Amino acid sequence: MRLLCWNVNGLRAAAKKGFAHWLHAWDDAIVGLQEVRALPEQLPADLREPDAWHAHFVAAEKKGYSGVALYARRPPEHVETALGNPEFDSEGRVQIAAFGRLVLANVYFPNGSGKNRDNSRIPFKLDFYRALYERLESFRAEGRPVLVMGDFNTAHREIDLARPKTNLKTSGFLPEEREELDRW
Questions:
Q1: What is the pLDDT of residues 19-35, one digit of tens each?
Q2: How many domains does the chain have?
Q3: Catalytic annotation on 151?
Q4: Tens digit of pLDDT for each residue in 46-70?
């Protein structure tokens, strides 16, 4: 089984570049997509319900924004799409799928920059990290293995970023964001 993760920056755009062909090349896989930026009904049928795949979508309430998708050759027993906080859940950022004992979270983590690149969404981002962590900890407490894949919107270590010294005050590399990932 292969686990594949991709921020597609718009699934409709990826579809025009051969996404369906790429998807069908994988025999036994789970594919997690982030930044889908479309409602399921806006997608072509071959992406909404592709042959031999089980597809699950979570869209943001705001059109053309965020969203995640999960394609699996084997059906998950259960898929959660919310953390129980309307502010988080309205952005369509989370899928938590159970495949036997394995819990797989496909996540598009928030960017903390804000509209004016003023880091105004950092509190929201950190609260999201904490809420997801707490939810996943409940599965770990049951003794279940948990795997998180997605776009974390944070470079955890200096090696993960081209110019770490010049990004110390930039969302995606702030000390408080990186510290939150240390718990994981």
A1: 999 999 999 999 999 99
A2: 1
A3: yes
A4: 999 999 999 999 999 999 999 999 9
